Amino acid sequence: MRIPKALIFDMDGTIVDNMRWHAIAWLALFEDQGCPTTEEEFYKTAGFTSAEVVRHFISPDLPEEEIRCLARQKEFLYRFLYKDHIKPVPGLRRLLRDARAHGCKLALATAAGDRNIRFTLKHLQLENEFDAIAGASEVQRGKPEPDIFLLAARKLQVEPAECVVFEDGRPGVQAARRAGMGSVAVATVHPAEELQSWPEVDLVIRDFREVTVPKLARVLPSNR
Question: What is the DSSP string of 154-222?
């Protein structure tokens, strides 16, 4: 079986197990705005942009400038809280080395803002590891639409069917399937048993120590 030509990684909750810190920052903002919610409800918005989260939990009718201001407040609090705790999901660096050894291209495709992307890659010392980065500001539609993964594939100059996507949330897994790519769900936020119930997912792992590039061959659409 052919191995993938490209690996595409979501960022939050996938290469870093940081969703709890995002949740803490968002819940503090919601409480301050008089719109309290639960961590469980927040996790249902996996894959949303910051603006979409504000509209969903606070108000869909806020002016754009107010949405941007609230999102900046949350991101400042998130980076302050998380900066001393950031570390890669186990096995990530080994998988990236394995991908390079097999000639795979690498991309990051994330709904995170540009500042959080730079923050994460700098603290992980992965600034120069990815051949392409596709951010939410570059596409019209977020996950579960496939736009961000298709953009990553175009930047890598690889056909979607030759790509495998790593995700932690169901909207991202659905986006990968709609893009015609293979998908691997990482059990950082959701338990592995729940991920295995998603009909769109091709493979479930607890962390990157459980997978190698040759093992990903069976995840490609043409090899299913």
Answer: HHHT--GGGEEEEESSHHHHHHHHHTT-EEEEETTSS-HHHHTT-TT-SEEESSGGG--TGGGGGGSGG
Residues in a beta bridge with 182: 164
pLDDT tens-digit map of 153-175: 999 999 999 999 999 999 999 99
Residue 9 to residues 1, 27, 54, Cα–Cα distance (Å): 22, 26, 25
Range of the domain at 32: 19-82
Please report, rounded to a whole number, the percentage of residues in the chain having pLDDT higher than 90: 89
Q: What is the pLDDT of residues 29-52, one digit of tens each?
A: 999 999 999 999 998 887 788 899
Does the annotation mark 61 as catalytic?
no
Instruction: Give the active site residue among 10, 17, 98, 168.
Output: 10
Final residue belonging to a domain, choices 62, 82, 102:
82
Q: Given 31, 62, 82, which residue is the final one in a domain?
A: 82
